[in-house]
Design a protein that fits this description.
By secondary structure, the chain is mostly beta strands. Helices cover 6% and strands 32% of the residues. It is built from 1 helix and 4 strands.
């Protein structure tokens, strides 16, 4: 997942200080809302839905990783490697569409849900 610095911005938020390797839940807290013009995911029958201000949307649980933009040289994407080793939907698609085109604050809510199992936090297709 990547974030832009504002509703009309073209610059990505940097995740240079993200706690990579930390287990937890990635939660988006809605700061400001607007209507999304995105058509959604037709195959899954998912469309963006405008959330409420202050709504907390859990995007997923797992071990935090970042992905570095080759041109910028900084991490501009963040995700969670799930503990159940699934290959798809590392972040909840419905939750992602609730956040689409909204102003949010991302928080990693630290937990010990991994039960001591080490996870491969390298980026994978999701």
């Amino acid at each position: 997942m990547f974030l832009l610095t504002g509703p009309d911005a073209e610059d990505y938020v940097s995740f240079e200080n993200a706690p990579v390797g930390q287990p937890g839940r990635l939660v988006a807290i809605v700061v400001e809302t607007r209507r999304s013009e995105h058509c959604g995911d037709i195959a899954r029958s998912l469309v963006p839905v405008t959330p409420r201000v202050a709504e907390e949307i859990t995007l997923g649980a797992g071990t935090l990783f970042t992905d570095t933009d080759a041109e910028l040289g900084v991490p501009t994407a963040v995700g969670l490697a799930p503990d159940d080793n699934r290959d798809t939907d590392w972040l909840d698609p419905r939750a992602s569409y609730r956040c689409h085109n909204q102003t949010v604050r991302l928080e990693l809510r630290i937990s010990s849900h991994t039960n001591g199992h080490a996870r491969d936090t390298r980026p994978h297709a999701a």
